[in-house]
Amino acid sequence: MDEVKIIREGEFAIIENADPTVSVMQLKIGTEIRLMSDQEILDLFNDVIASQDQLRAEHENIVTEIPPGRPQIKYFEDGDQWVPRGGVLRCFIDSDEDGEAVVHIDDQELSLRDFGRMLTVHAGWGMRIAFVDEDSVGEEPEIIVSDPPENEP
């Protein structure tokens, strides 16, 4: 327990590791969090991590892309968030009237906060992002591995 700090925020446990290089985790527990000790929350968190580790160990490097025209994300009521239905997301980046980035997936417009929250479904995993022209988002781009010229970002 000396290695983590647990903060309760409503139905969520915010778990901060003493090591600043370890990401802060937010775990939705529900109303039962009020009855749980810090150790019980930590045990639940460790169970979640162990389950993720087991899934990673059993996972083949194959991802499922939802066919065009079918919903790529769905709203998960219990978690009060959007979740991906597959392992590939076709999306468009835009900005709102305040200049904040928004991500369009299917007919949904997600704020960066909501998009980031959706990504937490895959916390502990990696992802690759390929930026393509809006008309090419449904195609697999050719990827060339190289450093860009010095005058490019």
Helix content: 10-25%
List the secondary-structure elements in sequence, H or E: EEEHEEEEEH
Q: What is the distance, rounded to the nearest whole angstrom, between the alpha carbons of the first and last residues?
A: 43 Å
How many domains comprise the coordinates?
A: 2
Please state how the strands of the largest beta sheet are arranged side by side.
Answer: 1-2-3
InterPro entries: DUF7713 (IPR056130)
Protein name: DUF7713 domain-containing protein
Domain DUF7713: 73-134
Organism: Paramagnetospirillum kuznetsovii
Question: Could you explain how this protein is built, in words?
Answer:
The protein is of the alpha+beta class and 153 residues long. A hairpin with a 7-residue loop joins strand 2 and strand 3. The chain has helices at residues 38-58, 112-119, and strands spanning 4-9, 12-17, 25-28, 73-76, 81-84, 92-95, 101-105, 108-111. The longest helix has 21 residues, at 38-58. Helices cover 19% and strands 24% of the residues. The protein starts with a strand and ends in a 34-residue tail after the last helix. The strands form three sheets. The chain has a three-stranded antiparallel sheet, with helices on one face.
